Every structure is written in C-alpha cells, then in structure tokens.
Amino acid sequence: MRSSSTPKTRPAPDLQALDARFExxxxxxxxxxxxxxxxxxxxxARAAQLELVPVAPVPRVAANGVEWLPVAGWEKHGWLWxxxxxxxxxxxxxxxxxxxxxxxxxxxxxxxxxxTVARNRRLxxxxxTGDSATPLVxxxxxxxxxxxxxxxxDASREQPWKADGQMTDEPGLLLGIQTADCIxxxxxxxxxxxxxxxxxxxxxxVKRIVESGVGRMRLQFGSRPEDLIAAIGPGIGPCCYAVGxxxxxxxxxxxxxxxxxxxxxxxxxxxxxxxxxxxxxxxAPGHSPIGPSLHLNLVEANRRQLxxxxxxxxxxxxxxxxxxxxxxxxxxxxASQGHAGRLMSVIGIRPDAP
Length: 354
Ligand SMILES: [Zn+2]
Known about the structure:
CNF1/YfiH-like putative cysteine hydrolases, binds zinc ion, six-stranded mixed β-sheet, 16 strands, 354 residues
C-alpha cells in the first residue's frame, strides 16, 4: 500500500557514460551530499509569506459569549451539531493580559485551572447544543492513527482514550478534538448518520489518520465515500509552518503528491534582501535568514487524503484561518513558544433530529 522510498529517475545518457567511465576506473560518482540537497530544494514552487495567509473566518457569537466557527452550508444538515472553537469567550486567564476578557481554553494544560477548563467546556457544549450537560468526549492525543468508537459513557472516563480519531453513530453526544496548530478534521455520513473527528499534525498526517478514519467509518457504519461530507478546521497555515528536512523526507516517502504540499518561502524583509552580507554571519549555515525556508500546507495534505478516500471535492469544506498569524482568534503552540491554550473542534448527532 505504501511505497517506502522516493522514486529514483534514470540518469541522463551523458551521465550514464560518465558513470560507466567512473566504474571502469574503480570509482563511484558522489550522488549525495550538498549538491544533491541543493537540486532537491529547487524543486518546490516559491511564494512570499503574505501570499499564503488564509482568509480569517468570521466567528458566530453564542448567547453565552462563546465565539465559534460554523461550516458554510452545513446548517442544512439539521441532524448535525458541529463547531470549531476560537479563543474568544470563556473564563480562562492563563493566556491573556491581565485586563483582557476571559478566554476559551478547552484543554487541561499545565498553566490553566482544571475547573476553569471544565467550565469552558460546558460553555462550548451549551453554545452548540443548548445544553451544558451534553456529554463531550475528548481524547488523550498521541500523534497516532488510532481511532476509537465512542459513546456517551466515554465522556465521564477518568482517563480518556489514547487516540487521534473518534467516531460514533449514537445521538446526543459531542466528539471533541483539541488543537493549537494541528489540523482538526470533522466528517459526517449524511445517509447513515454517523460522525467522526480527527487530529492531524504532520506526524498523524504522514500516518494517514484521515484516510484510515474514512476506512474505519466504512467498516463500522457501512459509510460510502459519496455520502460523506468533511470540514477541515483552522490550524497553522502554509504562511507560518516552516518545517525541517525530516518532515519533507517523511512526506516524500509516503505520498506521490508530496512536493505539491511544500513551498519555498522567502524572508520578506527588504533590508535583508538588499544587504544580505550584513546578515551572513549571524546564524549557522543552513539557517540563513535570507534563504528560503520550506513550508508545509497541512490543510491541503489532509484535503488530498479525503479525496484519496473517495470524497468529492465539493463535499470538502475548508474553514480557513491560520492559528499562528491570527492570534486574536486562535491559540497557537508555535507562535506562543508552547505557552498556549487549546481550541476544540466538535461534531455530534442531535438526539431530537427529524
Ligand atoms: Zn500564518
């Protein structure tokens, strides 16, 4: 199912002759090292950072002050509950300035008070279902491709399941995924009335959490891809998500379309661009502030997995937003150097659905 290595191209005829000559002489031409790395980097399309910033979505404000993002067009599915949270609303004081209003941290982070987080979660369920007592099932997320079948009893488990995806066809509960840069993905089966929620950071994306999730829905509920709708929520955008060679090589080993997910992004600072010599000695080689950095588009990576799983392009909605550069709306782990609250993406089936 997976290819384990990057496809190699045959050398051009003149290089074949050169290789033969080297071989005759008992030598081998060096195909690795710096030169090869440079040609590899040239293969990506280039972009300025600002071109890659997704449009910030406009939140809906609930009566209790919680601001959340709906999916355009999903209001016609009256049986469905769904929301992507923002940081606005709520009672947390852990991540805001002293005079700011409270915030909606939905993760039990070290810096926040657990009772405040629990109250925030009840505010979110109240905003979405009208009842703060609606069971909300959260996970202990571990960057895996593990998916569990959830029911209302899981909401009161002392230790949540260790997994990165959950699904249910039981009405009356919400499935929740926590993020602060990673990509949340919600999926619903319109015909069989089943729902699922997935957590996709780069490691989970490489492990195909969303593709396997759709497969699990098929096994569990008999879901057909043509009946599925999906929404990809806000995460760190291609504008801000600089990654290392390790992420690149993992994606290249797993996905034939990997190179389409990366862009070379240049520093937009005009002084640095005009006087590069001034900045040459400030950082280690390979981390030049004027050189390109490699940015990954995780939203597109997960859209491609939904397409690979058989969903129609028009059945996939992108909510938009970048958690890292739209910090007035979102929590970002990377932009806050790890000191961040958690957003939550929820989906469920209304118990009173017609
Ligand atoms: Zn950004």
